[in-house]
What we know:
Blueprint: E1 7-15, H1 19-30, E2 37-44, H2 51-61, E3 66-70
Parallel strand pairs: 1-2, 2-3
Amino acid sequence: MSQSNKILVSIVTLAYNHEVYIRECLEGLIAQKTDFIFEVIIHDDASIDRTASIIREYEVKYPHIIKPIYQSDNQYSKG
C-alpha cells in the first residue's frame, strides 16, 4: 500500500440494539470530508434488533470504509 493509500484514522464504534440510531451514526461518519483515508470499525455485540442488518447495508455500500465485526454471542453479558 503506498503512503497515499494508507489508512490514517480508524474510528471504532460499538453497537448493541441501536437500530433507531445506527443509520444516523454511520451517515455522520461517512459524511466526513477529509484529505486522508479513514475506516470505520463497527462492532455489533449480537444485537437482537435490526442493527446488524443496517450495518450490513453500509458494509455493502461502503466496503472501503465500513469494516464490521459481528458477534454471534453477546460479549458484554459474558463479562
